[in-house]
Amino acid sequence: MEYIDVLNQSKNIEAVALVPGSSAEQAAIARFKQFFADFSPGKIDDLLDHTYAERLYFNDTLKTLHDRASLRHYLQDSAAATELCVVEVDDVISNGKGDYYFRWRMRIRFKRFSRGQDTESIGISQIRFDSDGRVIFHQDFWNAADGLFQHIPLLGWMIRKINQRL
C-alpha cells in the first residue's frame, strides 16, 4: 500500500518533528490552515510554494500526487469547479514525532452539481512537514461519497438508495 510505504519513507528521510510550541511549528500550522481557509485559484497560486514542498505525497482519497507542479494543476482545477470552498480547521493535534492531524469541516458549493446548494463534509488530514515547515506528506481521511459523489446526478441517486437500505 503506497500510503504505508510513503509514510515510512518520509518518517526516516525528510519529516522532522518541529519543536512543540516553536515559532516554526506555529508558522507551518498557520500556513496550512490559511491555504485551505479560502480555497480559490488565486490563493493557490499565492500560497502553494510556501505551503507544500517540491517533492511530496498528496492523497485526498480522489487523487494521489507526488510533486508540487501536479498538485498545483489539480488544486487549481478543483477550485475552478467550485463557486465556494471554505475549510475550517477545528483542531490540530501532534504526536510529537512529526505527525500533525488537522480535524476540519469543509463547506463547498459546486458550479455543476446542486447549484446554489452548499455541501458540508468533515475529515482529518495527516500532515508531515519538512525542516522548512512545508508539507511533504498529506493524507486526507474523509467520506468522498457524502461530500462529493452524492451530488453527481445518477451516482448521487444510487448512493442515496444504498444508504436507505443500510
Keywords:
Nuclear Transport Factor 2, Chain: A, 166 residues, six-stranded mixed β-sheet, 6 strands, alpha+beta, single chain
Report the order of strands and helices.
Answer: HHHEEHEEEEHH
User: What is the β-strand count?
Assistant: 6
The major β-sheet equals: 6 strands, mixed
Named CATH architecture: Roll
Which overall shape is indicated by the principal axes computed on the Cα atoms?
A: globular
- The proportion of strand residues reads 25-35%
In whole angstroms, the N-to-C terminal distance is 29 Å
Number of domains: 1
In short:
This protein has 166 residues and is an alpha+beta fold. Helices cover 40% and strands 33% of the residues.
Characterize the structure shown.
The chain has 166 residues and is an alpha+beta fold. The chain has a single domain, classed as Nuclear Transport Factor 2, Chain: A (Roll). Helices cover 40% and strands 33% of the residues. The chain has six helices and six strands; from the N terminus they run H-H-H-E-E-H-E-E-E-E-H-H. The chain has helices at residues 2-12, 23-37, 41-51, 68-80, 144-147, 153-165; strands spanning 52-59, 64-67, 82-94, 100-110, 119-129, 135-142. Strands 2-1-6-5-4-3 form a six-stranded mixed sheet, sandwiched between helices. Helix 2 runs antiparallel to helix 3 (41-51) and helix 3 packs antiparallel against helix 4. The mean pLDDT is 85. It comes from Pseudolysobacter antarcticus. Residues 33-136 form the SnoaL-like domain. This is Nuclear transport factor 2 family protein. InterPro entries: NTF2-like_dom_sf, SnoaL-like. It holds the Pfam family SnoaL_2.
